[in-house]
Amino acid sequence: MSPKSSNSCEDECDTDALKSEAEDDKGGLEAKMSLLNGITVIVGSIIGSGIFVSPTGVLKYTGSVNASLLVWITSGVFSMVGAYCYAELGTMIRQSGADYAYIMETFGPFAAFIRLWIECMIVRPCSQAIVALTFSVYVLKPIFPECQPPDEATRLLAACCILLLTFINCWSVRAATRVQDWFTYAKLLALFIIIAAGMYQLCTGHVEHFTFEGTTDDVTSIALSFYSGLFAYNGWNYLNFIIEELKDPVRNLPRAIAISCTLVTIVYTLTNVAFYTTLSPTEVLGSAAVAVTFAERLFGAFALCIPLFVAASTFGAVNGVLLTSSRLFYAGAAQGQMPAMLTMVSSRATPVPAVLAVALLSLLYLTVSDIQALINYVGFATWLSIGAAVLCLPVLRYTQPNLERPIKVNLFFPILYIICTILVVAFPAVASPAETGVGCLMILTAVPVYLLLLEPRTRLTGLGSLTDAATRLIQKLTLSVRPKTK
Fold first, then answer.
1. Which stretch of DSSP H or E encloses residue 406?
2. Which in 6, 177, 223, 454 has the greatest CB count within 10 A?
């Protein structure tokens, strides 16, 4: 037998063995997530670094405490309106990938690929890097109480956090959801401790900071404050990305979204109120870890518990981003717009190659340590993309009126959301042209990639054998196969 045929035989044997393992676990992604799991995925994904990083950004651009509280409440209502629109889209188009699947159905493959590129190359890995860096800052803050933790130590710990959660998500969906559940409870406990302390301060008359004094009248600054506020709420749509793994999605998706968004808006507003009962605007603006500064002022010897709880909060958020983002890579690959290897599922029913792809990109973003700049990049790309996804709702009402719609939203809400999204994107683009320009360039890189690799009339030839070899290698390294078509 020739070496070539021998290698071919070995490949077939390896593939058969992998198929056998996958079939034992039914192959593909399975619906294992309950309503409670869905709520913890959303709450765990939303409540991460945002509430502990964004108070500084919101206050900086609004100029006063009361105006910043109004931005927090408005951002929560804005997110609820978007989530309400997503409830119709998610129950109408029940495919993993969320916005990507909706845009593919509505506007076709080119627009869908741009959305996929924005989310996979910018938003998700960048968000994960931000949350992992915040995790590191809070873990290291007790060790460096008088100064900022060293950049190198912060990045190294953030990388360790991402790698540990990558292993858990590759190992088991059940393990990943359990991590999500328990760390969601931990982060809510941390916030409830802060809120309880704040309510005590409020009842004892500490209200001197609650004024509109210093409020800016610059519309672009107010719009930039929404970037920070909305960043803290980012994640309300993450359950839509894993809808194929949610039990009874028509019933559980809207319930999970409604409960989670309401809970998070209340918790965020009360947490900010608590901060300002104790800390002056100057102290908030000068603190890299607002919750730690708050705890040091109120809890004395017990102040150490807060950074530990915050670290748990951000750890769970990194897990939530990784859990849902890998399914977006998986959905894009299933549509042929990402490498085929990302459709592979291990014998443990986890999309291992997709999880690894998200982790590697997140590690790349750790080379940038300016969290505020990362937030602005994410904000521009995120709200531009989500606005496009919400636009699918009225377009599909017109182009495909006969689609089954278990939930039917009044068109007033998507139109309102789209108008607000245009304003949120346009004003900061004028105020921060450099960061907006970088964001636009990152988005526009999708065009040559699509033309050279995906568009049949212009794509490069001769890459098939290379990608096939890479796919076989990844299959062997991760013990993964393409799932059976349902």
1. none
2. 177
Cα 149 to Cα 133, 162, 293: the distances in Å are 11, 19, 15
Total-model pTM: 0.72
Nearest to 41 by CA among 206, 209, 246, 216: 246
Q: What are phi and psi of 112, to 5 degrees?
A: -65, -40
- DSSP state string for 415-464: HHHHHHHHHHHHHHHHH-HHHHHHHHHHHHTHHHHHHHHT-TTTPPSS-H
> b or e along 27-60 (b: 16 or more beta carbons within 10 Å of the residue's beta carbon)?
bbbeeebebebbbbbbbbbbbbbbbbbbbbbbbb
Mean pLDDT of 327-334: 76
- Give me the count of residues in the chain: 486
In the DSSP assignment, the letter for residue 238 is G
pLDDT of residue 164: 93
Provide the token pair at 35.
């309503």
How is residue 155 written in tokens?
Answer: 């990045």
pLDDT tens-digit map of 368-397: 756 666 666 666 777 788 888 899 999 999
**Contact assessment for residue 485 and residue 23, using Cβ atoms and an 8 Å cutoff:** no
**Contact assessment for residue 245 and residue 29, using Cβ atoms and an 8 Å cutoff:** yes
Q: What are the structure tokens assigned to 125, written together? A: 């890995």
- Nearest residue to 323 via CA among 166, 428, 202, 218: 166
Residue for token digits 């001197």? 208
Residue 209, SS3 per DSSP: coil
Tokens coding 126? 């960048």
Mean pLDDT of the chain: 80
C-alpha dist (Å) from residue 130 to 54, 188, 265, 331: 12, 20, 21, 24
H or E stretch at 481 = strand 480-481
Strands (E), 305-408: 345-346
Assess contact for 253 and 91: CB atoms under 8 A.
Answer: yes
> Locate tokens 């078509």: which residue?
485
Q: Which long-range contacts (CB under 8 A, 24 or more apart) does 299-307 make?
A: 299/197, 304/142, 305/193, 306/190, 306/193, 306/194, 307/138, 307/139, 307/141, 307/142
Percent of the chain whose predicted confidence (pLDDT) is above 70: 87
CA atoms of 420 and 381, how far apart (whole Å):
15
CB 101 within 8 A of CB 336: no
Judge whether 66 and 212 are in contact, CB under 8 Å: yes
